[in-house]
């Protein structure tokens, strides 16, 4: 008897092709509800998201008792999933429990139990999504990645529509200067924080196998629909005008290049170049609609969207030499068009608001945060209790609830103890991702999930994102896609090897 025979005897029956387990469907429903309910920022949406994650976690429990591939010592006896599940799965839930427990303890003395309960629910969603997805295999992970990217493309469409047609439900005028796309999340930076990781996942899922992944015979065929999804996600990022979102995108692309190595970086660039240039064309056509004092130009925006789509699709399916020339020509023409408009009032409004990296509101809130930390360095103020007050350059006072930096916000709310527990959680995530290298994954899915996590972590240093429930849920989903999958088999077995 060979190990492959024993594996077939011990492995649970696979799900029917094209179907997803009920637990995974519950997670995807939580994602959908969170996206529609303004990111789950307000209590009704947060409760719905948390409840659906709980349903998914409960539905996963029976699967934890199923066997996994047999061990070499006794190939006919299924090895329980619990030992490996505990070895690979406990650090993240334990770190989430410790951080959530400290939030509740701090609320006991500082008050603010509702805010602390919201933080605990957020941590529960992260850990729950991770535990559900890690109980699946590569086939399910690939389908989940596709569903997330497709849903994200729909959100991106609402972001673009909000600016092109000035729809108040999907765009907001920020500081009476620029209309910025927000989509169904109604907060531009949160929309960017959702779309950037999904764009990275979509780009990576189309690439060839990279180190740490296992190839699949029919993986990632070239498809106009997949190109359109990547393109729309990047158009949505551009329509948010989020500087931190663009920085996070750059971080994620660098991570993808590092994971691809010398052999795969060319393929990654090829998959990303067309949608990136096409999205730049679409965003440039949207630019006249950004300034508040200008009228929207939906016809121009629609023409730019179609032109950008042509660039993205052409870059995917044209021959290599023609593709390079076409992308270069498109980039040059775009540069000429943009430079010709730099002297207009609309362009000046845009450059004044978005080109600078400074922000008086953020710097003022950061200064106020330092004062609060100095007052309670060890234990913090308690979640939801801090108010950031500072004096603006014109002499008026300003107040904010958040500091636009989740790491600094944690230090304010929970003190050095809370920050240490947060660092422990980040360390647990890194440990879990590294453990996932030994398990089979579809080409690019794991790399895309790792890049998505890196982008979300980078963006969290510039905006208050963890208060939007769907974003920590996404972090749990990405972690599940990148982690050891108990539904799969470690790459230590070889087909046909005698026992």
From TrEMBL:
Keywords per UniProt: Membrane, Transmembrane, Transmembrane helix
GO cellular component terms, semicolon-separated: membrane
Transmembrane domains' residue ranges: 20-41, 111-133, 145-167, 187-210, 231-260, 299-318, 324-344, 410-431, 464-482
InterPro entries per UniProt: O-antigen_ligase-rel_domated (IPR007016), WaaL-like (IPR051533)
Entry's localization field: Membrane
Ranges where the O-antigen ligase-related domain occurs: 303-423
Span of the signal peptide: none
Topology of this chain in the membrane: Multi-pass membrane protein
Pfam families with a match to the protein in the record: Wzy_C (PF04932)
Protein name (database record): O-antigen ligase-related domain-containing protein
Native organism: Rugosimonospora africana
């Amino acid at each position: 008897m060979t190990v492959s025979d024993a594996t077939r005897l011990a492995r649970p029956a696979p799900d029917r092709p094209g179907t997803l387990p009920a637990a995974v469907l519950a997670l995807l429903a939580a994602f959908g509800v969170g996206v529609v309910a303004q990111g789950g920022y307000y209590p009704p949406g947060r409760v719905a998201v948390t409840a659906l994650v709980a349903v998914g976690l409960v539905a996963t429990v029976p699967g934890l008792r199923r066997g996994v591939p047999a061990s070499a010592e006794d190939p006919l006896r299924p090895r329980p999933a619990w030992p490996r599940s505990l070895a690979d799965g406990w650090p993240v839930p334990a770190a989430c429990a410790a951080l959530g427990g400290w939030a509740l303890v701090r609320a006991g003395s500082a008050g603010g139990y509702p805010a602390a309960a919201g933080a605990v629910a957020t941590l529960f969603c992260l850990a729950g999504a991770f535990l559900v997805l890690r109980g699946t295999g590569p086939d399910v992970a690939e389908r989940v990645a596709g569903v997330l990217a497709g849903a994200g493309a729909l959100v991106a469409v609402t972001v673009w529509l909000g600016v092109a047609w000035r729809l108040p439900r999907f765009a907001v005028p920020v500081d009476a200067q620029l209309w910025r796309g927000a989509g169904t999340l109604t907060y531009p930076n949160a929309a960017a924080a959702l779309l950037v990781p999904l764009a990275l996942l979509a780009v990576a899922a189309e690439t060839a196998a990279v180190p740490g992944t296992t190839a699949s015979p029919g993986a990632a065929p070239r498809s106009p629909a997949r190109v359109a999804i990547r393109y729309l996600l990047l158009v949505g990022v551009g329509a948010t005008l989020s500087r931190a979102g663009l920085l996070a995108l750059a971080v994620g692309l660098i991570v993808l290049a590092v994971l691809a190595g010398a052999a795969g970086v060319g393929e990654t660039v090829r998959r990303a170049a067309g949608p990136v240039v096409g999205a730049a064309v679409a965003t440039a056509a949207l630019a006249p609609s950004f300034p508040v004092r200008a009228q929207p130009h939906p016809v121009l925006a629609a023409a730019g969207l179609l032109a950008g789509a042509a660039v993205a699709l052409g870059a995917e399916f044209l021959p290599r030499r023609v593709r390079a020339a076409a992308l270069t020509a498109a980039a040059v023409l775009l540069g000429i068009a943009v430079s010709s408009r730099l002297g207009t009032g609309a362009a000046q409004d845009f450059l004044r608001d978005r080109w600078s990296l400074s922000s008086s509101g953020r710097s003022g809130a950061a200064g106020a945060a330092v004062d609060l930390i100095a007052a309670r360095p060890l234990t913090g103020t308690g979640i939801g209790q801090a108010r950031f007050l500072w004096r603006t350059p014109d002499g008026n006072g300003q107040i904010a609830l958040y500091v636009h930096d989740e790491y600094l916000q944690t230090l304010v709310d929970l003190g050095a103890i809370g920050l240490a527990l947060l660092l422990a959680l980040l360390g647990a995530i890194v440990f879990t991702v590294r453990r996932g290298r030994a398990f089979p994954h579809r080409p690019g899915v794991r790399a895309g999930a790792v890049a998505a996590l890196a982008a979300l972590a980078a963006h969290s240093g510039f905006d208050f994102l963890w208060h939007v429930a769907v974003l920590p849920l996404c972090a749990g989903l990405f972690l599940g896609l990148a982690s050891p999958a108990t539904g799969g088999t470690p790459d230590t077995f070889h087909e046909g090897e005698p026992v």
